[in-house]
Known about the structure:
heterodimer; A: mainly beta; Methylamine Dehydrogenase, Chain H; four-stranded antiparallel beta sheet; B: alpha+beta; Ubiquitin-like (UB roll); five-stranded mixed beta sheet; 15% helix; globular; binds FE2/S2 (inorganic) cluster
Amino acid sequence: xxxxxxxxxxxxxxxxxxxxxxxxxxxxxxxxxxxxxxxxxxxxxxxxxxxxxxxxxxxxxxxxxxxxxxxxxxxxxxxxxxxxxxxxxxxxxxxxxxxxxxxxxxxxxxxxxxxxxxxxxxxxxxxxxxxxxxxxxxxxxxxxxxxxxxxxxxxxxxxxxxxxxxxxxxxxxxxxxxxxxxxxxxxxxxxxxxxxxxxxxxxxxxxxxxxxxxxxxxxxxxxxxxxxxxxxxxxxxxxxxxxxxxxxxxxxxxxxxxxxxxxxxxxxxxxxxxxxxxxxxxxxxxxxxxxxxxxxxxxxxxxxxxxxxxxxxxxxxxxxxxxxxxxxxxxxxxxxxxxxxxxxxxxxxxxxxxxxxxxxxxxxxxxxxxxxxxxxxxxxxxxxxxxxxxxxxxxxxxxxxxxxxxxxxxxxxxxxxxxxxxxxxxxxxxxxxxxxxxxxxxxxxxxxxxxxxxxxxxxxxxxxxxx
Amino acid sequence: xxxxxxxxxxxxxxxxxxxxxxxxxxxxxxxxxxxxxxxxxxxxxxxxxxxxxxxxxxxxxxxxxxxxxxxxxxxxxxxxxxxxxxxxxxxxxxxxxxxxxxxxxxxxxxxxxxx
Lengths: 467, 115
Ligand code: FES
């Protein structure tokens, strides 16, 4: 079951990371990923029925993204979970480019947690178009470690897997991190308990021995939906935690203040030399730039999305920056404004002064409800993003979280999500909607589904880390 | 173990599940079994997520009768509990009950705060 084959012992790591003898997963450098990767042919996308009257389990959809295929832009396979009620959300690989020194290790297994159920599925993608569930870790095994609500999955360079856990076994605080071993069994809690209260996303930069984690809220707070009362009661997060990656201890906590409410997706640049990164503060609708200022990390707001007046709303509509990613060449930052309905592309060649390069509208409260003429209506806004390794194709889905969708885009439960795509010109810094691509999650045998995170079989801009 | 708890061995209550925009079903809920499990056993699917009282996916509204939560219903705020909202995944019937059920009930808990 382990993807570490005999002979897969890690080579000695030196500060000069040795790329000769690379026999492990991924690519030796981010530039190698751009040069050597083939255009993606299938996408794995989380599909959800939780919290609707459709009596079916959530699934992992296999979407055909090969333009030369007859089933282009169709969901060609659905890997159904064994139980209902999971809320599949984020997921990740057993190995990425950070393990490129691990001869024999392969990027083959997806770790797919249930956000609500706390169940963790392991899917074998040896057959890319027909992946299969290989192993299931039941919620009770997770609760034994006084953790629940699994979120982000990153592999650790030694074959282990780390998962951010947002709550304790009751769905209250504190959260923490759960480590899985190379056989996809629970190894235990990664950090000494008590390092953090709230948790959400994390990213590590091993060359600098640093990890940064962000904060959503206690599961019992965000699970039922977004309640302003909880914002007033300080039940939502506004901090970043800077960790000693090797020791698993928090070295510094950055309070982002009012401008940094609900910091979610956290991305370092891909270059292993870089100590720059970005986090999107969803509720404040700001993007923060974080960086090593010499003796400590700092985080400054660098992009402020203005709330906009809308005739049907009593209050100006916040953008809600729910996802962001950095292109593999570290030249562009993309993010979604889920409530407004746009995707933005910023030039980050000067990381502390992002420059808006392009913006594209599709759905949401201000974009066209039919971004592609003659195609179905889009009822949500751009949400989870994924970019091709070569930076030329940006894809997104429209669902945020079942209960939050119900508040802000109630029609999404009945009509289902869509997956859309823009062609990106990284030379000119432009995006254009691909009018030949729309994946309709509303038209599935069991009923309309929500669509969430997207991944490619050969790694992507939100998984791969370099040593 | 059944029989350990004399109450659960003896008592069971009739529970009426009124699906919003749907049929009304009637189940027998043993006193020691959650409403969700009892419904599931009779082949009636109610929505659920965490099964621990934290997420509110299973939220229903108690229209008549009496029930207890076997662990704290953390997903519900005071105002929800006062308005009769309950969590079938951890709810035990204490009398015959009538419940407003279905996936839509959850969305009663919070609305769009800016609209
Ligand atoms: S299923 Fe989560 S509260 Fe009942």
